[in-house]
Amino acid sequence: MLQKSTIQLLRFHFSIFLLPVFLFAVSQVAQVNLWHTFFVFIILHVLVYPSSNGYNSYMDKDESAIGGLSKPMMPTKELFHLTVIMDTIAIIAGIIVIDLTFGIGLLLYILASRAYSYRGIRLKKYPLIGYLTVIVFQGGFIFALVYYGCSVERSLNIPLVCMLASTFLIGGYYPLTQIYQFEEDEKDGVKTISMLLGKRGTFIFCSIIFSLAATCIWYLSYIHRNDKILYLFLAIMTPVLVYFLWWMNAVWKNPQKADFKNSLQMNIIASGCTCIYFITLLFLR
C-alpha cells in the first residue's frame, strides 16, 4: 500500500492542465490511430506527467502551496522509487505499443524534466533556461510526440506552426503558476522567470506570449483557409481573457492578490477553455 503523501504528490489531477496540447496534436492528425491514441494518453497523463510531478516534489520538499496543492505533504523515498518505476514502464510501453522513436522521445522528455528538478543540475534555478525547458518540452515537443504517436503513418512531418502555438500557449500561462511562490523559491535558491519579471511584469510578459499563440492560431486558420479556427479560438478563449484582465487589475491594486487561489483559478479556466477549443476542432475534423 502506497503512502498517502506519495499518492498526493504525484498530483494526477494536475496532469489535466497539460491535456490541451494532447488534444491539439490529435486534432491536427490526418489519420488517427485510435488504439495508439488511447495508449499515448495513458502513458503521458497516467505515468509520465505524474512521475514528473512526484520527482519535482521529492527534490523540492515544498512546505507551502505548489501547483494544484494548497498543503503538500513531505515526500519519502518511496515517492522517488515509484517515479523511477513509472518512467521505466512508460518508456517500455511506448517502445512496445508505438515504436523505438516514440520511446526515445519519452526518454528525452523525462531527462529534461529531471534536469529541471535534480539538485545536481537544477535548471529551474535559472529563470530563462528553466522557463524555456518547460514551455518547449511541455509545449512543442509533446505536440510532436503525440502527433507522431497517434498518427497512422507515424510521420515526422510535424506542422511547425502548431508546435509553436503549443509552446506559446504553455508559455503564456506558466509564469502565472509561479507568481505566488517568490518567497519559497528564494529560500530554495531558485529564481523563476516570474521573479525576474516581477508581479506586474509577469502579467505583461504573459499577455505578449499569449498574443503570439493567438497569432499562430490565426496563421493556422489562414493556411487551412478556414476562418472558423480563429473565430472559435477568440470566442472560446474569452473567459480566459476576462479573468486574466480582472486578476491583473486586482494585482495592480493589491500585490497580495497574486496568490495560490487566483493562480489555480487562472490555470483551471485557461486549461478548461483550451480543452474545449481543441475538442471542438476535433469534432469539426
Description:
This protein is mainly alpha-helical. It has one domain (16-284): Farnesyl Diphosphate Synthase. 73% of the residues lie in helices and 0% in strands. It contains twelve helices and no strands. It has helices spanning 4-10, 19-28, 34-60, 77-97, 100-117, 127-150, 160-173, 182-187, 193-223, 227-236, 238-253, 260-284. It starts with a helix and ends with a helix. It comes from Pinibacter soli. Keywords: Membrane, Transmembrane, Transmembrane helix.
Instruction: Report the total helices.
Output: 12
Domain count, please report it. Answer: 1
Order of helices and strands: HHHHHHHHHHHH
CATH topology: Farnesyl Diphosphate Synthase
Mean pLDDT: 93
Short characterization:
With 285 residues, the chain is mostly helical. Helix content is 73%, strand content 0%. The model has no long low-confidence stretch (mean pLDDT 93).
Keywords:
73% helix, Farnesyl Diphosphate Synthase, mainly alpha, globular, 285 residues, 12 helices
Topology:
Blueprint: H1 4-10, H2 19-28, H3 34-60, H4 77-97, H5 100-117, H6 127-150, H7 160-173, H8 182-187, H9 193-223, H10 227-236, H11 238-253, H12 260-284
